[in-house]
Amino acid sequence: MNPDMNPDVNPDVNPVIVVHGGGASKISKDRKERVRQGIMKAAQAGYKILTEGGSAVDAVEGAVTILEDHPEFNAGCGSVLNANGDVEMDASIMNGKDLSAGAVSAVRCIANPIKLARLVMEKTTHCFLTDQGAAKFAAAMGVPTIPKEQLVTERNIKRLEKEKHEKGAPNSDCQKNLGTVGAVALDCKGNVAYATSTGGIVNKMVGRVGDTPCIGSGGYADNDIGAISTTGHGESILKVNLARLTLFQVEQGKTLEEAADMSLGYMKSKLKGLGGVILVSKAGDWAVRWTSASMPWAAAKDGKLHSGIDLEETSVTDLP
Fold it and tell me: pLDDT value at position 178?
């Protein structure tokens, strides 16, 4: 799309997308390359949508869909299992242009909860649908169901067995259960959006919902400030409203890095909760920060793809 042809396109805005693959205690060497490739693929796909004139909402949904479809990430077909050995997924999405938002929780047997969250945002007068109500709505919208076995990986079966063996109770360890996927974007019209999706925490109680589908905790987007997606210990993130808290600091004049460090530091000191955030500002600046051991991430802007997993490790490549 030629910006000269479209009066809505702001020539001063360079589109940006940032994605994360969840805070993690440690990613094993054999998984690292698969995780890195997955996160880079998601960022590239989202960036392609933006450079072709697509919206920030389209871009974050597209990026998160790729991560939901990737078995290495705790969302969609890589989701961890609850105490009964089932997958229950949560997701949310928000458009910074008008603060419209959609969320789903405890959904089962669909491949892409983020797509269902977007349908809630655009096809209902509500923000949030859960469990059976979300399932009925999905059916009404023609969203196909898939056998629950399709969402269960061998790795997650083993993780649940190990967790039950070690604990016999849902894991309260803030280090272990940090997996989420998310994306934030700024499009060529100056609109921002976020999307976040997860399978929750291993061996969680049936019906447990964390921060991911909660607007203001799992993410937030407002064109006047920017957009954020969070990851980490869900209960801790909920208690501090991590997403909105961070953007509040940005509103107060802090840089993205300062705002992220302040809110993540607050959550850690107050609750011993660990996590991470990805941010984009209305001006197109971006940041990735985390207090967990690692957080796979990638960011695309100005034809460059930045990515990393561990602290002090960033690679930059030219986008095709």
Answer: 63
Least confident among 120-129, 176-185, 192-201, 307-316? 176-185
Rounded to 10°, the helix 242-251/256-271 angle is 140
3-state secondary structure the chain: CCHHHCCCCCCCCCCEEEEECCCECCCCHHHHHHHHHHHHHHHHHHHHHHHCCCCHHHHHHHHHHHHHCCCCCCCHHHCCCCCCCCCCEEEEEEECCCCEEEEEEEECCCCCHHHHHHHHHHHCCCCEEEHHHHHHHHHHCCCCCCCHHHHCCHHHHHHHHHHHHHCCCCCCCCCCCCCCEEEEEECCCCCEEEEEEECCCCCCCCCCCCCCCCECCCEEEECCCEEEEEEECHHHHHHHCHHHHHHHHHHCCCCHHHHHHHHHHHHHHHHCCCEEEEEEECCCCEEEEECCCEEEEEEEECCEEEEEEECCCCEEEECC
The active-site residue out of 51, 180, 212, 231 is 180
pLDDT at 25 over 90: no
**Catalytic residue status for 180:** yes
Mean pLDDT of the chain: 93
- Give Cα 271 to chain centroid, integer Å: 22
First to last CA, the chain: 18
Compute the average pLDDT of residues 91-105: 98
Residue 97, CA distances (Å) to 14, 118, 275 in order: 17, 15, 27
% of the chain beyond a pLDDT of 90: 87
pLDDT of residue 306: 98
Output phi, psi for 229, to 5 deg.
-130, 140
Report the predicted TM-score, pTM, of the whole model to 2 decimal places. 0.94
